[in-house]
Specification:
Radius of gyration: 23 Å
Number of domains: 2
CATH architecture of the largest domain: Orthogonal Bundle
Order of helices and strands: EEEHEEHHHHHHHHHHEE
Strand content: 15-25%
Strand order of the largest sheet: 1-2-3-5-4
Largest sheet: 5 strands, mixed, barrel
């Protein structure tokens, strides 16, 4: 049943990561991706995703009220009563018994929106320091213009996620991801006399700028914008960088060509959405630093949701496999196992056949919902 009548004060907030298995609870989440369906017996039910600051869980609601189903929009906050369970094949699921759309002011938004673990002030400080280190006047002026948080696109760049899921999929995620890529790429560039370090840093900071317009800035309803689905972040990013370059008087033509090349080639392969592959030293560095840091972030994020003593994680989309989490030390080695390592549950940890992302369809964390050709990073 679906109930849209408030009953006293707001319910206690229970994070998804703290849901007790097999016990009826009442709490609230952001509702996303609703899908009304009918079973083989003609009985209606509702599929949706429930999200909060700690994560996301698939949910199913049998016998929903049609009026509420019609009015429920992606990004609405809902109070739900139901039971959380973990199925050996289908994973985590929340079975909803009652559902009510909540009004603003009935909930604590801070418990619902995932935010970068790095303080925003620190991200801004590190970004400013990196821009200040760029000695090329043209690139320095471009970066100051592009990343100015008091104007667009910098204001949105500092807010939106870097992906919908998989890595840096939280508020300020794009700024955090771009900054880490640029810091690592800059350090690599300094080791090679033949590499333009300023161009590398600029390309790394701006490689994903198209996500400013391809991802929604609404923290309650993350996902692709119409432009993101129709054009893709690489096309959008290239056009944005070209427009920003045009605002800088006397910007060197050759510098402009090579900077735009970094943006359009950063996915590394045509099959992953880049119309060309990296053809300059700087573009090669940015691509591999982007790929590497995104994969490490994906491992870190799933490790944070894994039991401390587990040796293996659950499935990591960006690795197309599991991640080995045991710590390597100089102490006495732990007992090795020949079969499935301790902490793993074998094949049950892998996606159901047909559900796992294929190597030919990588995405920006969106799975089948991503625009064709989008990449994991």
């Amino acid at each position: 049943m679906t109930d849209n009548t408030a009953t006293g004060g707001p319910p206690q907030k229970i994070l998804i990561t703290q849901l007790p298995e097999g016990r009826m609870v009442t709490t609230y989440f952001v509702a996303l991706d609703k899908e009304a369906a009918t079973d083989r017996n003609g009985k209606s039910f509702l599929r949706l995703k429930l999200r909060d600051a700690s994560g996301e869980v698939k949910a199913i609601h049998f016998d929903p009220d049609e009026a509420i189903v019609e009015s429920l929009a992606s990004g609405d906050v809902v109070q739900v009563s139901g039971t959380y369970s973990v199925h050996e094949k289908f994973g985590q699921q929340f079975q909803v018994k009652t559902l009510r759309i909540m009004a603003p002011g009935e909930y604590d938004i801070g418990t619902l929106v995932p935010v970068s673990p790095v303080p925003f002030d620190e991200l801004v400080r590190r970004s400013a320091a990196l821009v200040a280190s760029v000695r090329s006047p043209a690139l320095h002026d471009l970066l100051e213009r592009a990343l100015d948080t008091s104007a667009e696109p910098g204001a949105t760049f500092a807010i939106v996620p870097a992906a919908v899921r998989n890595h840096h999929a939280y508020r300020h995620g794009l700024l955090e991801h771009s900054l880490i890529v640029a810091e690592v790429a800059g350090a690599v560039a300094e080791r090679f006399d033949t590499v333009n370090r300023d161009l590398t840093v600029a390309g790394a900071l701006l490689h994903d700028i198209g996500k400013v317009h391809s991802y929604s800035a609404d923290p309650m309803a993350p996902g692709f914008t119409d432009a993101g689905r129709l054009h893709g972040e690489i096309v959008i990013g290239h056009d944005m960088v070209r427009g920003l370059i045009d605002e800088i008087p006397g910007f060197p033509a050759e510098m402009a060509v090579q900077l735009r090349h970094i943006v359009i080639s950063h996915h590394g392969e045509r099959e992953k959405g880049s119309p060309v592959v990296p053809a300059t030293r700087e573009a090669v560095i940015v691509h591999f630093c982007d790929d590497m840091t995104a994969r490490l972030a994906a491992i870190d994020e799933i490790a944070g949701r894994t039991a401390a003593d587990a040796r293996w994680s659950s499935w990591v989309n960006m690795l197309d496999g599991l991640s080995y989490l045991a710590t390597a030390t100089d102490g006495v080695p732990s007992a090795a196992t020949d079969g499935v390592p301790s902490g793993a549950t074998g094949a049950d940890d892998e996606p159901v056949p047909g559900d796992e992302p294929s190597g030919g369809e990588p995405t920006d964390g969106e799975g089948a919902d991503a625009p064709t050709g989008a990449a994991l990073f």
